[in-house]
Every structure is written in structure tokens, then in C-alpha cells.
Design goal:
alpha/beta, five-stranded mixed β-sheet, single chain, about 290 residues
Length: about 290
């Protein structure tokens, strides 16, 4: 299938402590007690093989995460030289779901996917983001038949090695585990990209508890832009796009950020951090001028 759109996405989550009642029998309505019961359950399970396990050793399994933000970068995929020619990416928007209700956020993601069948791009999305979204979709009674049925046996969203449908950069860049799986920050550091700055995933739970949902969305959008820029360099490396198209995509992103700067200061903060990381050499053409 020749996908016509690109959807680079990232989610932010917090522990779903309300699951403690059904899983552990905890009847408390106090979030702190619910959290203690939920993590305590998994600590007890882990101590069967590791007697010294503590809560710090626990990363909750995918069903027990509540989605508090989905951010995305959407672009059109053009092939002016035909199906086998280099792809061009025309940026449409960088945005986040604006609903505060988790059910609406999750439904919105699958509705978009069912309507557009885009190429998905993520960083660790196959291991974490998509499983979380699928479990939460089941929780809210979402139906997403095209996610499971579109494509064929070898080319589909559910086929691990079909990176034309879902390119999980963590998987692809490590050759599906043949080499070390690098953190996105590590990859960004060698590409002159800002990576994470100011906020990281470990702070999301506290931010959510303090009602800072918009700040979480802003942070998530910067992660999405990092992911997009890593993806562009990957597509250049494998020959799916060319240098001119890469430079145009980068230039378009910079222009978009500058056009949005008045109402979205986090985008300009990203651009400033990017400028510092790449020493103002944003494009391949910029690199050639200083070589």
C-alpha cells in the first residue's frame, strides 16, 4: 500500500491506580492508597524471583497506564517521481489531542487511524505506546477493524517488520535487537537534535497530579518533533528520500515553528535548543557550507 500521510506520535501516561480495586481488592478511594496497593501487588509478584525487589524495580505492565496526552506530527507523503521515487514530506501540523477525558483521547486516535490509514512513526511505540492504546481502547469499547485487518500477512500495522506501516525507530535502528536499543536522547545527541530538555517522562505523574495537562502536551509535542527529525535522517539513510527533500522537510518544520511562536512558546524553546545542539547547521546544505 502507498500511504498518503505520515503520523508521528507519542503518548504520555500515568499509573491507572483505579485498577487496584479489581486487581488487589483495595476498596480505598484515596489515590495514594490505591497506588500503594497496585504497586504492592507487582512487588509481591516480583519477589517470587527477586526477594529484594522494591517499588523502584517495578515498571507497570501496559494495561495499567492511563493515557493523559497524545501528541502528533502529521504530514502528507508525496511521490512526484512515481511509486519508486524518493518521498517528500509536506508538514501539516504539530498538535495534541485536546480532550481531557481519556476515553475520548483514545477513541480519537483510533478514529484517525481508521479514516486515514497513515504510516505510523514512533520511538518505542510497538512495545509501549500501541499496546497501551490497544488495552485502553478495549477498556472503552473501541472498534478498530482496519487497524487489524488492513494490508496483508506481511504488510500491516500488526506485522513487526513492516516499517512502511509502522516504523518504530527503536526497533528499526537497532535492527530489531541485533544491536543495542538506544534511547532517543542518545540518537538525538549525535544528530545535533535537542532531545529531551526541561521535562522528561519521570516528571509526568507529578505534573498530572498538579493539573499541568497542557504542559504535558507541550512536552509530548517536543518529543514528537525529535522523533520526526530522527525519522527524516533514517529515511535519507535508507534511500527512501533524498537530500533536497530532507532539507525541505527540515526547513518546513522551522518555518512552522516560527509561524506558531506567539501562542506556543514551547515550540520556540525547542527551536532554540535545536539551534544550540546543531550549532545552527540545521540542513545538509548548512553542513556542506562549513565542511
Amino acid at each position: 500500500m502507498q500511504h498518503r500521510s505520515l503520523f508521528v506520535f507519542d503518548i504520555e501516561t500515568v499509573p491507572d491506580v483505579t485498577a487496584a480495586r479489581n486487581l488487589t481488592g483495595c476498596d480505598s478511594t484515596d489515590p495514594a492508597e490505591q497506588r500503594a496497593a497496585l504497586f504492592g501487588h507487582f512487588v509481591e509478584q516480583k519477589r517470587k524471583t527477586d526477594p529484594n525487589a522494591t517499588e523502584a524495580d517495578i515498571f507497570l505492565r501496559q494495561p495499567f497506564w492511563k493515557v493523559v496526552a497524545i501528541s502528533f506530527l502529521e504530514a502528507d507523503i508525496l511521490r512526484p517521481d512515481g511509486p519508486s521515487g524518493p518521498e517528500q514530506y509536506v508538514l501539516k501540523r504539530v498538535a495534541s489531542g485536546t480532550k481531557d477525558d481519556e476515553a475520548e483521547v483514545v477513541k480519537g486516535f483510533f478514529h484517525m487511524l481508521e479514516q486515514k490509514l497513515p504510516r505510523l512513526v514512533s520511538y518505542n511505540g510497538r512495545t509501549f505506546d500501541l499496546p497501551v492504546l490497544r488495552y485502553r481502547g478495549m477498556k472503552y469499547g473501541v472498534s478498530a477493524p482496519r487497524y487489524y485487518q488492513a494490508g496483508d500477512k506481511w504488510n500491516s500495522y500488526t506485522q513487526r517488520y513492516s516499517d512502511d506501516w509502522h516504523c518504530d525507530l527503536l526497533e528499526v535502528l537497532s535492527d530489531y535487537g541485533a544491536s543495542a536499543r538506544c534511547k532517543m536522547d542518545e540518537v538525538c545527541s549525535i544528530l545535533g537534535l535537542p532531545g529531551k530538555f526541561g521535562v522528561d517522562g519521570s516528571k509526568v505523574s507529578d505534573m498530572y497530579a498538579n493539573g499541568q495537562v497542557q504542559a504535558i502536551r507541550d512536552y509530548c509535542e517536543t518529543d514528537v518533533m525529535n522523533t520526526y527529525l530522527v525519522y527524516l535522517r533514517h529515511m535519507l539513510m535508507v534511500g527512501k528520500t533524498d537530500a533536497a527533500s530532507y532539507d525541505q522537510a527540515v526547513t518546513d518544520l522551522i518555518a512552522y515553528i516560527e509561524a506558531e511562536q506567539d501562542g506556543r512558546p514551547h515550540l520556540m524553546e525547542f527551536l532554540a535548543a535545536w539551534d544550540e545542539a546543531c550549532e545552527s547547521k540545521f540542513t545538509l546544505n548548512d553542513l556542506k557550507k562549513t565542511a
